[in-house]
Design brief:
The protein is an alpha/beta fold and 385 residues long. 38% of the residues lie in helices and 15% in strands. It is elongated and about 65 Å long. The N terminus is likely disordered.
Length: 385
């Protein structure tokens, strides 16, 4: 298994196709951020880029001379797969692309055989936490992800754990799999704590960031918080950031069930500027997920000196390093004990915050972009053999 691929020997100008459909979402999540952070860098590193989306893009400025946009007008996200499997192969053939990169799990199966293929795998949620997905989405991933890995010339995994998962489930990825870690997003300058009054925060808080879906274990976090003694609950509110996901996580109902409704602040989807400010002033980030392929909020929080509470499972220990306090996500008492430590030991939190800054320096979008481009170039070379 590679560690990011090697430089291709042939440095000719390539025509590179990319599925950028994730950039059409107004509310960007992890895969959309990944796509933007890499693509915004690699287009300035040379080659000619052909970007395909089933509907207009909401993120990024793609007016560079070496970038060509092919944008559809399909209204619904459920039509994305039909677009990818039917329209994109035709356009890629017309554009005479040398290689096609999908930043998100799936590849067009009908691409002309001469076109090399690269796919990024972020996680295997369908395998390890499938009950937290929409049934149709789970079926699509379980069907199309193994096929994408099979037909790809090169496969990128975003963590050591994801790479291990891919090899375990799809052993035919051996020899074409590269592990490329993600980077730290420069969201925006953080505002003063007082600026958070606009979104209803004017007291100390700890932070949850993520789509509101069962896999994130938000209900477990709220229950663990409710078990704290009153003097510790009074130390900090729980501020929740994230758009609604599938699975019926009713935060208000869960908070009322555990009688902490007056201590929970649901902020919904916030701007990058607000998110940066929330990270900056949070006592800590709490992310006790059942499963993550990487966990970008961990990295974004640590880059601002904010320590993290996260799970001892999947990729999360790998990302948190020595700047995180790990819990068993299936054990509510384990989460409660960690909350006690964070809310009751200022010296511990301060020292963990110093380690967070150092740990975050291991990750760089510039390096991620360079390594990704090397893999794309290498795919063209390997496809010729």
């Amino acid at each position: 298994m590679g560690k990011g691929g090697g430089l291709a020997n042939n440095k000719r100008m390539l025509r590179i196709g990319v599925d950028v459909s994730m950039l059409s979402d107004q509310q960007q999540t992890g895969v959309g951020r990944y796509t933007y952070e890499i693509l915004s860098r690699v287009v300035s590193m040379g080659h000619e880029w052909f970007l395909y989306s089933y509907r207009p893009l909401a993120v990024g400025n793609w007016m560079q001379k070496n970038v060509h946009l092919h944008i559809g007008q399909l209204p619904k996200s459920m039509m994305r797969m039909l677009w990818l499997q039917t329209a994109v192969p035709v356009m890629a053939a017309r554009d005479k692309v040398d290689v096609f990169w999908s930043p998100t799990h799936r590849l067009p199966s009908m691409l002309p055989r001469r076109i090399a293929r690269v796919v990024t795998i972020h996680d295997l949620v369908w395998k390890h936490a499938g009950e937290t997905m929409r049934p149709f989405s789970r079926w699509l991933d379980a069907t199309l992800m193994p096929e994408a890995v099979r037909i790809a010339d090169r496969v990128i995994a975003n963590s050591a754990h994801t790479a291990k998962d891919v090899l375990s489930e799809m052993p035919y990825a051996e020899g074409k799999l590269s592990q490329i870690l993600l980077g730290v997003s420069n969201l925006a300058p953080a505002g003063e704590f007082s600026s958070l009054k606009v979104i209803g925060l004017d007291a100390p808080y700890f932070l949850f960031v993520g789509t509101l879906e069962p896999r994130k274990n938000l209900a477990g976090l709220i229950e663990a918080y409710s078990r704290l003694p009153e003097e510790l609950k009074n130390c900090a509110l729980l501020a929740i950031v994230g758009g609604k996901g599938w699975g019926g996580v009713d935060v208000a109902a869960v908070a009322e069930k555990f009688d902490v409704q007056d201590r929970i602040w649901v902020l919904g989807y916030v701007s990058d500027e607000q998110l940066a400010t929330l990270y900056e002033h949070a006592m800590f980030l709490a992310m006790p997920s059942f499963y993550e392929g990487f966990g970008l909020p961990l990295l974004e929080a640590m880059s601002r000196g904010t320590p993290v509470l996260t799970s001892n499972f999947a990729s999360m220990p790998e990302v948190a390093g020595d700047a995180g306090l790990l819990v068993d996500p299936h054990d509510i008492d384990s989460i409660t004990r960690a909350l006690r430590t964070f809310l009751g030991d200022e010296t511990f939190v301060r020292n963990l915050g110093l380690r967070a800054i150092i740990n975050a320096q291991r990750f760089s979008w510039e390096l991620t972009a360079q390594q990704t481009l090397h893999v794309i170039e290498d795919a063209v070379q390997s496809h010729k053999k």
